[in-house]
Amino acid sequence: MSGFRATRLAALAAQIDAIQTGGRADVGVLPFGDARIDACLPGEGLPLGRWHEITGAGLEAETSAAPAAFAALTASPLARKGEAVWVMRRDDLWAPGLAGLGFPPERLIQVCARDEAETLAVMEDALATVGVTAVFGEVEAVDLTAGRRLQLACEKRGATGFVIKRRPFGGTAKAEAAGSVSATRWRIASAPSEPPLGEFGLGSPRFRVTLERCRGGRLGEWILEADRAYSWEAADVAHPLRLVADLGDRELAPASERRAA
Predict the structure, then answer these.
(1) Which fold has domain 25-170+177-260?
(2) What is the mean pLDDT of residues 109-129?
């Protein structure tokens, strides 16, 4: 490809992105602190001022335990800078558990909504509120219209949204329109923990993380660990998630490589 053509394509991509984001200037990124993950994300970090989808598989579609923990860990650096609003339909969020993972519970505002429409409406209001840096919403599906409304709300104050896909009372999954305006989509599952080398018992929580969609970036799959979980030092780390192993061909890296990481 010629240099002129590449320049023109880059300019066109920037124009499309400006239209999709309402022309608002970027408010920065939240890096994971590991180049193997950050290199897959545009700007080398999780885009702020946008909203992200986080989903699970199997029983997680109803309980959403691992996706919720991952969302809280990912957003905890943001929560330390402002207020965090968590909107849910089933009142089963356990704040002490989030505190053990390093999420600041004193910054958490919990809202229990009656249905999906109210959940999305509260998310919009929260994202556009001064002082709110992160908003979580547990919903089953987000159509294109609702997704665009969430994005516009993110752009008003630069807050970041985390849509946790969940069917809190079970049942059959809703049909969802193809396409999405979310900046990224993550699929989260629990992974076996390992105690520190030479010790016995359980180690810190681990997650099998798949980046299934990333606008302007690349896909990837990793094993991440909650760094210093259930420790008084949990809030002192730059980012509470650390990379334990890359995943290739859907297989875990050898144990020796995991320890070396």
Answers:
(1) Rossmann fold (3.40.50)
(2) 96
